[in-house]
């Protein structure tokens, strides 16, 4: 309708009257929505969520720097000022790396013992492939999807063993499995405190807690390998040089001792010169060995300093209650949504 100024307005009273007159339609729609929502949501497998929280070691030299000041205001510029290419804000990106995800397949898991069910003990790869429950209503859709996909792509079997998976080149089934694993694990980093929170969602509570704790260890090992890779190369290099210097020193010492033993009663100047030459060479070899030993110990100390430490703020625990699906909330939301859609449809002429 229009007001005195010619502007179009919505008559709410008329809309309410229209809805009230068609209330029986709402009863029918609510009944169908309730039944269909229950049919869909109740076969949906329950899932559990377990999480751990870590606090990475912060360099003391950066404590008074601009990055620490900026972090107090919610900003983090450590990636620009630090020497590490992988800083905490990039850890979530690491969880999307095929190499990182495939590295989780060999983790040994065990399901929680339930009445009437056998406990499953296997690796995570086999568990994800063979022991995942699905909503029975999804089977027809999955079958149709499989048939359509097979028309355009060659149906290759999944890799039989973990060692045969190539993260660089995977077939369709291995890629879908990797995507499913990525959807179950998540990593969040607090920009102010750099606290790392790792969460794992799974249909079994014990598997959820086991994977959360194992992924924490897997992440720590990855960061330690990255942070200490250069220091380990230095240790290996100086270890090799030290061993070589020791071999040269032993060889020189044996030559000097052998020469002295065979010329014990000789007083010729030629003997004195040769002995002095061998003794000088022995001193050089000894000094070189001492220097390499000192350098080796120094690099070992640097390796220890480069090894990062992580403080576990929250350990993984087996969840008692499922995190979802929220069945009653889902049904209620569907009822609300159907009410809104039906109301708009019945009063579309009055509104538009």
Question: How are the secondary structure elements laid out?
Answer:
Blueprint: H1 12-21, H2 23-41, E1 48-56, H3 66-71, H4 78-81, H5 91-94, H6 98-102, E2 108-110, E3 121-123, H7 124-130, H8 139-152, H9 172-184, E4 185-189, E5 196-202, H10 205-262, H11 269-306, E6 310-314, H12 327-346, H13 348-351
Antiparallel strand pairs: 1-5, 1-6, 2-3, 4-5
Helix pairs in contact: 2-12, 10-11
Structure description:
The protein is α+β, with helices and mostly antiparallel strands. 57% of the residues lie in helices and 9% in strands. It contains 13 helices and 6 strands. The strands form 2 sheets. The chain has a 4-stranded antiparallel sheet with strand order 4-5-1-6. The protein has a two-stranded antiparallel sheet with strand order 2-3. A hairpin with a 6-residue loop joins β4 and β5. α2 runs antiparallel to α12 and α10 packs antiparallel against α11. The N and C termini lie close together (11 Å). About 6% of the residues have low confidence.
- Unreliable spans are 60-75, 77-82
Secondary structure class reads alpha+beta
Compute the gyration radius: what is it?
A: 35 Å
Strand-residue proportion? 5-15%
Q: With helices defined by DSSP (H or I, 4 residues minimum), what is the helix count?
A: 13
Major β-sheet profile: 4 strands, antiparallel
Q: Globular, elongated, flat, extended or rod-shaped: what is the shape?
A: elongated
Q: What is the count of β-strands?
A: 6
Distance between the termini: 11 Å
The share of residues in helices is 55-70%
Order of strands across the biggest sheet?
4-5-1-6
Order of helices and strands: HHEHHHHEEHHHEEHHEHH
Mean pLDDT over all positions = 82
């Amino acid at each position: 309708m229009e007001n005195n100024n010619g502007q179009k307005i919505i008559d709410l009273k008329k809309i309410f009257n229209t809805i009230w007159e068609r209330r029986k339609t709402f009863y029918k729609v609510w009944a169908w929505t309730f039944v269909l929502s229950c049919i869909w949501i109740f076969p949906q497998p329950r899932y559990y969520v377990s999480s751990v929280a870590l606090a990475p070691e912060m360099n003391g030299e950066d404590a008074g720097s601009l990055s620490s000041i900026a972090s107090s205001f919610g900003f983090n510029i450590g990636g620009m000022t630090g020497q590490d290419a992988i800083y905490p804000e990039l850890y979530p990106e690491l969880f999307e790396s095929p190499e990182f995800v495939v590295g989780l397949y060999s983790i040994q898991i065990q399901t929680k013992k339930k009445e009437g069910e056998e406990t499953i003990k296997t690796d995570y790869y086999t568990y994800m492939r063979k022991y995942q429950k699905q909503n029975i209503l999804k089977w027809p859709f999955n079958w149709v999807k499989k048939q359509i996909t097979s028309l355009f792509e060659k149906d290759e079997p999944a890799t039989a063993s973990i060692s045969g998976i190539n993260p660089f080149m995977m077939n369709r089934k291995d890629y879908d499995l990797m995507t499913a694993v990525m959807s179950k694990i998540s990593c969040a980093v607090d920009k102010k405190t750099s606290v790392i929170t790792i969460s794992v969602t799974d249909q079994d509570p014990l598997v959820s807690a086991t994977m959360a704790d194992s992924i924490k260890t897997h992440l720590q090992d990855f960061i330690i390998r990255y942070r200490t890779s250069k220091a380990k190369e230095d240790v290996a290099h100086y270890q090799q040089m030290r061993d070589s210097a020791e071999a040269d020193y032993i060889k020189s010492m044996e030559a000097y001792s052998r020469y002295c033993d065979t010329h014990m009663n000789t007083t010729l100047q030629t003997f004195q010169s040769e002995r002095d030459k061998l003794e000088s060479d022995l001193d050089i070899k000894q000094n070189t060995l001492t220097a390499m030993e000192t350098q080796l110990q120094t690099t070992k100390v640097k390796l220890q300093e480069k090894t990062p430490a992580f403080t576990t703020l929250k350990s993984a625990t087996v969840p008692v209650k499922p995190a979802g699906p929220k069945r009653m909330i889902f049904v209620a939301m569907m009822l609300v949504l159907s009410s809104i859609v039906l109301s708009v449809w019945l009063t579309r002429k009055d509104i538009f």
